[in-house]
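R.M. (postdoc): so does anyone remember the format we settled on? I'll just put the structure tokens first.
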């Protein structure tokens, strides 16, 4: 997929963006399948639909297979000291920085054994620490999967949950049954459905509207908010989690300041923060020093 050549409208919006008034939306496209097959074909359609609605969109593409990211070793350096201490930082940092760059993520994976591919799961394992310290609050995602017959729901649920847990504000998804080994061609109905969800996704990206999170995201978030004070700098098991959560603003809010909350969600956050604070006193997570 080549980046759009610069037409007059693109140049115009880029100039304006320097002034801070108009800004080209950036989309990161990640192929979490080990080849360009049925699922990638759907992504190509989705990208063309996004281009239709967002004429000045910029794209960056990653074939995850080409990154050769080794398996997560479970060293827990990312949790305790920071992502820069990951033995695979050189590779995982590339994706992290690309996510920082993007406004929208178009992610795909074939459904393998009723879940995402091991390839994509491995990337998510490297980002698991972000479930302790969510970060990508302003980002939106579109996840696409294809399946031979059954199990796509499992892949969607898994990726939707993971992206929201690391902060993503909204995750759109599209799944399709192909009944095919790499000879799938989306019919008109599928193209129509995919066009609809791609349009919704890119309009949401362009409007930059921040949505209230699902309440189930507030539970782990606020348990960490309560617990992580026991890992603040100077404590016996100090960690980067402790630094993140003892930030004054973060400590006093039930979710990130960029995201609106319903009143009941603030109350819910407060309750789970209290539970975390109480339970965390008796249950310190240790590590080998
Ligand atoms: C390792 C492997 C696991 C698969 N697991 C499932 C599955 O759990 N359920 C299913 O219906 N199809 C399964 N399939 C079929 C693929 O999901 C289906 O053919 C898909 O459209 C292929 O997409 P791709 O060409 O992008 O890889 C599997 C295929 C492979 C190679």
């Amino acid at each position: 997929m080549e980046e759009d050549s610069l037409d007059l409208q693109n140049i115009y919006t880029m100039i304006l963006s320097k002034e801070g008034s108009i800004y080209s939306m950036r989309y990161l496209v990640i192929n979490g399948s080990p080849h360009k097959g049925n699922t990638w074909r759907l992504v190509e359609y989705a990208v063309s639909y996004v281009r239709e609605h967002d004429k000045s969109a910029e794209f960056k593409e990653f074939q995850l297979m080409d990154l050769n990211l080794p398996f997560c070793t479970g060293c827990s350096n990312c949790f305790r000291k920071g992502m820069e201490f990951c033995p695979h930082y050189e590779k995982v940092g590339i994706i992290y920085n690309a996510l920082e760059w993007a406004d929208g993520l178009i992610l795909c994976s074939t459904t393998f054994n009723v879940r995402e591919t091991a390839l994509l799961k491995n990337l998510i394992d490297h980002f698991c620490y972000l479930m302790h310290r969510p970060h990508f609050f302003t980002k939106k995602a579109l996840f696409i999967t294809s399946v031979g017959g059954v199990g796509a729901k499992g892949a969607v649920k898994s990726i939707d949950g993971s992206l929201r847990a690391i902060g993503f504000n909204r995750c759109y998804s599209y799944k399709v049954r192909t009944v095919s080994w790499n000879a799938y061609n989306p019919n008109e109905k599928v193209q129509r459905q995919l066009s609809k969800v791609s349009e919704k996704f890119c309009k949401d990206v362009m409007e930059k509207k921040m949505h209230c999170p699902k309440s189930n995201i507030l539970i782990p978030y606020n348990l960490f908010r309560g617990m992580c004070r026991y890992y603040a700098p100077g404590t016996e098991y100090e960690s980067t989690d402790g630094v993140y959560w003892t930030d004054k603003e973060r400590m006093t809010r039930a979710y990130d300041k960029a995201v609106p909350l319903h009143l009941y969600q603030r109350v819910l956050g407060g309750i789970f923060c209290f539970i975390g604070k109480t339970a965390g006193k008796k249950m310190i997570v240790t590590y080998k020093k």
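R.M.: ...and that's the designed sequence above, right after the tokens. Also worth knowing: Residues 188-207 form the longest helix (20 residues). Residues 33, 37-40, 110-114, 146-151, 178, 180-182, 184 surround flavin mononucleotide (CB under 6 Å).
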